Amino acid sequence: MIDVRLEKRGVSEAWVKSLAAKTLKAEKSSMSLSILITGDREIRKINKKFLKHDYATDVISFPTGDIVASAETARRFSKELGISFREELARYLVHGTLHLLGYDDKKETDHRRMHARQEQILAEVLGRGPKGRR
């Protein structure tokens, strides 16, 4: 089951669910997810409350299967990078899902492995070749 809550405009619940389902399928997982698409103010509150980081971030994953992503951060970075808002937000959702599936990006070798897989899945779910960002 994939539960989605949208607090920001720009994407549809169906698109988020489809993206999450395709990501899980690519990793051969049937994990349940709860996804919140919110703004910088709310993700900052969540980041501070649960991770003790007093700043907005792009995506947070919780071991309970919860993913919180900031649409505002995605919109800002997409403009800076010259890519679509949907691509950047999709990157956050794939990244958060991979964390829930056991991927880590703290060590350099793990970082390269995780981000390579992230971009591979993004290419599959968005129907294009990987750009290799992040």
Largest sheet: 4 strands, mixed
How would you sum up the global shape?
globular
How many DSSP helices? 5
> How much helix, percentage-wise, in residues?
40-55%
- In the sheet with the most strands, the strands line up as 1-2-4-3
Your description of this structure?
With 134 residues, the chain is an alpha/beta fold. 54% of the residues lie in helices and 15% in strands. A 4-stranded mixed beta sheet has the order 1-2-4-3, with helices on both faces.
What's this, in brief?
The protein is an alpha/beta fold and about 130 residues long. It has helices at about 15-25, 40-50, 70-80, 85-100, 110-125, and strands spanning about 1-5, 35-40, 60, 65-70.
Write the layout of secondary structure elements.
Elements: E1 2-6, H1 13-26, E2 33-38, H2 40-51, E3 59-62, E4 66-70, H3 71-81, H4 85-100, H5 108-126
Parallel strand pairs: 1-2, 2-4
Antiparallel strand pairs: 3-4
Key traits:
alpha/beta, globular, 5 helices, 134 residues, four-stranded mixed beta sheet
